[in-house]
Amino acid sequence: MADRIPHDHPTVESVRATLDRVGRMDQPKLVLPNDPELFPETIVHFVLDGQQYHARINRKYHDTPEIRSVRDNARLARAGEGEGEDTSVNRLHEWFETNDLEFGRSVHVDVVEPNHLYGVRLPGERAVYTDIPKPNSSLSDIANNLE
After folding, report:
1. Which end of the chain, N or C, is less surrounded by CB atoms within 10 Å?
2. Residues 132, 43: contact at Cβ < 8 Å?
3. The domain over range 4-145 is classified in CATH as 3.40.50
4. How many angstroms separate the CA atoms of 61 and 45, rounded?
5. What is the residue extent of each domain of the chain?
6. What angle (nearest 5°) sits at the alpha carbon of residue 69, between those of residues 87 and 140?
7. What global pTM score does this model have?
8. Are 12 and 5 a contacting pair, CB within 8 Å?
9. How far apart are CA 48 and CA 119, in angstroms?
10. pLDDT, tens digit (0-9, with 9 covering 90-100), for 108-120
11. What HEC string does the chain produce?
12. Angstrom distance (rounded) from CA 16 to CA 128
C-alpha cells in the first residue's frame, strides 16, 4: 500500500500562491513563488480535491513560475494550453469554478516532493496525499527528450 502524507507532515513544504486571470476568456492560472528549487519548469503530478492529475510548471513571463492548466495525464499536460486540437478538460478551471473562487485569492500549494508531486488547497482545508513513486530516471529522460 502506498504511503499517505498529510499536508502538515514535516517533509511537506506549504507555500502561498495566487489565482490570477489569463487571456481574454478570464481563465485561471496559479502564480507560484519564484523559487526554482521548489518549482522547476517541468511536468509534475498535481492534486486537486484529492484527485491526481498532471500539470506543466512554466516560467514564461518575468521568469515567474505558473500553472495555466491541469490535465488528466502527462501527455495532455505536455501538449500545453491551446496547442493543437486539445479538447480535454482543464481541471484547474474546473476546480476554480466548482469552488466559486475569485481572481486574486490566495491558496496553499503543498510541495510534497519538489519536481514531482504537488497539491493545492484552500486555506484552512486539510489534504492527504498518496505517495507516487518517481519513474526510473532513464525513462523520465527519454520522455523529456521527446518534447
Report:
1. N
2. no
3. no
4. 23
5. 4-145
6. 95
7. 0.85
8. yes
9. 6
10. 999 999 999 999 9
11. CCCEEECCCCCCEEEEEEEEEECCCCEEEEECCCCCCCCCCCEEEEEECCEEEEEECECCCCCCCEECCEECCHHHHHHCCCCCCCCCCCHHHHHHHHCCCCCCCEEEEEEEECCCEEEEECCCCCCEEECCCCCCHHHHHHHHHCC
12. 18
Closest to 129 in 3D by CA, of 5, 13, 18: 5
| Residues 20-75: tens digit of each pLDDT | 998 777 899 999 999 999 999 999 999 999 999 999 999 877 889 999 999 999 99
For residue 129, is it left (φ>0), alpha (ψ between -120 and 50) or beta?
Answer: beta
Go through the chain and tell me how many residues it has: 147
By CB neighbour count within 10 A (0-12 exposed, 13-18 middle, 19+ buried), where does 74 fall?
A: middle
